[in-house]
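[User] Could I get a sequence and structure tokens?

[Assistant]
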Amino acid sequence: MTVLDECVSPHVAMAQRDHIRLEWQRPHQVLERARSVAWTCFCRATVYDLCEDGGRAFLRRTIQLDGKHEIHEIFPLPINEARVIWTGLLSGRAR
């Protein structure tokens, strides 16, 4: 059994050559009560979350570096738009 066999959360596919580049920024305080509703596996150095609150949503990227965490987010969007981007991220069409 390998580590990947033990993973229960999805892994992000490799970025496709023509993928959409997301604009990652420092965390916003706009949706400070947002909760993660989907996430990628923690076995990778970079973990992504889909966060939602009050009809808005955003993606969060956490890079795990030697015990430290670097966090970036995309600007909040309507939930349906953020879910489309989340799907694109998982499939390698967005990064």
